[in-house]
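BUG: 3D viewer hangs when loading the predicted structure for this chain

Environment: internal workstation, default settings.
Expected: structure renders.
Actual: progress bar stalls at 90%.

Input used:
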Amino acid sequence: MALMTILDAVNKTLDEQMSLDEKVVSFGEDAGFEGGVFRATKGLQQKYGKGRSFDTPLAESAIIGGAVGMAVNGLKPVAEIQFSGFVFPAFNQIVTHVARYRNRTKGTYNLPMVIRMPYGGGIRALEHHSESIESLFAHIPGLKVVIPSTPYDTKGLLTAAIKDPDPVIFFEPKRIYRAFKQEVPETEYQVPIGKAKVVKEGKDITVVAWGALVRETEKAIKLLEKENISVELIDLRTIQPYDKETITESVKKTGRFLVVHEAYKSYGPGAELISMVNEKAFLHLEAPPTRLTGFDATIPLPKGEHHFIISPNRIASEIKKVVNF
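Structure tokens produced before the viewer hung:
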């Protein structure tokens, strides 16, 4: 076991998989020599050479288009988009090629590729650096969308993503890249894609979150300790496919549901989760299923970012509203 941050876990997983499988290659803007802006790929080029860890032009469409060609020809590319807000020039490649290749070729070809992206706000970054756009990709058939919240899950989920025969969008919550350390096995293991984790059991309300907001929800739960409210916290971990069974069983037990996410409210992941809860656990509900989300507005620049980011106090307040309905 080794103490790792989420950033450490990304780096160690890439190192481990590149050592175990020469078909795994890592690349992106400044992701070779410098190791990326967050140093997630630090040391990989020095260890594996420029043929397997390399810098690309500032051209996201070319990065993903190149990854498609690599995957079709037997490699396992792990492409980095420097910030999730930079991905839009590559959206054409992702939607028209990455997501459709298995279907287009009637299963003759699959694309074993991973697209890594730091995502979310909370670091007082510039425009296009703080978006939470997971719902854009979760809506597209043919893509898996993963968001870890701990170092342990980061390594297990990234390993599973690299070994997956189909494309995986891997969002990394940069706000908590270095926020805490956790003991992580130094040997290879996988966390299954599509399986949520019950972080804390409770009986009064089910709260679902992912990424950085899992930690914010844990802080909110501590604020409620004197309120005698028992919260069951679920880390969704995978946005697509998502774990309907774990959520449904929890809501049947608690009778109340709150989803917390940083993405915009309208047509966001919360709407899908609430719809699923209504379909599968409606007769067990004791309060309307609720969502606490980012605002339907472009995330502000650094000085105003705190107005957009969801705080533990806001989460605690919303939990109380649902419980006391």
